[in-house]
Design a protein that fits this description.
It contains 6 helices and 2 strands. It is an all-alpha fold. It has a domain of about 80 residues: Orthogonal Bundle (DNA polymerase, domain 1), CATH 1.10.150. It has a two-stranded parallel sheet. It starts with a helix and ends in a 10-residue tail after the last helix.
Length: about 150
């Protein structure tokens, strides 16, 4: 019997007589749903991570440069470390400034703080660099201690 004869005979045989085709062993039934669940959870996790970046919280405000990044200082929102750069201001005058904030103007600043003569002279020296913007709660909370230590 030749191989071609056997192949032809099997091809023409009724379905019940044909041998089952060779296939790989089937994977366990639980592996497929787990893989789908794993992929689905990773996609949802990525989507959640990306959507968290687009939250509608106000993190910055127009005067952020005045919190120590420029020569002008927003007295109502700047923390105490900003005044370290100004000789004579830190720690006494700076402590009084941040403890008694907010202020509407320089006159109110002097009346609220009750500076000594030396402190008042130091503040007068830098008074032209001070501005008085609307206080923001997210900056006021860190005025005295912003968690940065040397």
């Amino acid at each position: 019997m030749s191989l071609s004869f056997l192949t032809t005979t099997l091809a023409l045989a009724p379905t019940a007589l044909r041998p089952a085709p060779l296939t790989r062993a089937a994977a366990p039934t639980m592996s497929e749903p787990i893989a789908r669940r794993e992929i689905f959870s990773k996609v949802l996790g990525s989507a959640a991570l990306l959507s968290a970046a687009a939250a509608n919280a106000e993190v910055d405000y127009a005067g952020v440069g005045f919190l120590g990044g420029s020569s002008t200082i927003d007295v109502n929102n700047a923390n105490i470390r900003v005044y370290i750069k100004l000789p004579g201001m830190y720690p006494n005058a700076a402590g009084k400034l941040v403890s008694n904030a907010p202020y509407k103007n320089a006159g109110e600043m002097y009346s609220k703080c009750k500076f000594t003569a030396a402190e008042s002279a130091a503040v007068k020296k830098y008074e032209t660099r001070f501005i008085f913007l609307e206080p923001k709660p997210e900056y006021i909370i860190d005025n005295i201690n912003n968690g940065l230590y040397r």
